[in-house]
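User: Hey, quick favor. My workstation is busy. Could you predict this chain's structure for me?
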Amino acid sequence: MIKVLFVDDQRLFREGVGALIAKTDDICVIGTADNGEAAIQQIAEKPPNVVLMDIHMPNLDGIKTTVYIKEHYPDIKVIMLTSDVEEDLVIRAISVGADGFLLKSLYADDLIRSIHDAFRGQIVLSGEVARILANKIRELTLDKKQIFAKRLENRGLHFSNRELDIAYLLMGGHTNKHIAQKLFLAEGTVKNYISEIYNKLNIRNRAEIIAFLRKIMR
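Assistant: No problem, here it is.
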């Protein structure tokens, strides 16, 4: 039997998930808590196999509670729950040892399967969370200019290597003269490349071009 502690400050959600788990044959909720401090007290008295925990809670949030659990009870699996995906929180939760990160909007059978998978030592992630982590891994293996090129390609924008060099410097607010000096090109050549970039982006204003390119990199 997989013993679960469910931690969430929304009583209705706790009761709903508890009722759902009660229908299974091999999972049982051995306790509930509405914040991290209460969860830690319950774990000391009756350790669960898996903790399902909201990331946003009063007093002691899900991330800080996960840090404590992993330091004192490393064998307990912790699955974070959230209503909205925030990249920073996803990265922080995984980095402190969370065994999963799920959206509360997931289907009931997906939740049950995730509890089983986490209990068996697997990392469980909602699709959107997995996408965030995949993008982060890609960014760690690419330099900024490569990321810039990839994001342009994702928008159907294909630049030559030289256009990419100039667009990247243009995004940084460099003047045509500075771009020419940096790339060892004639200033007229730089102007021609910038005109081609204007055509590809269908934008005629330099400030708008810079704003558009910077938006891609955010």
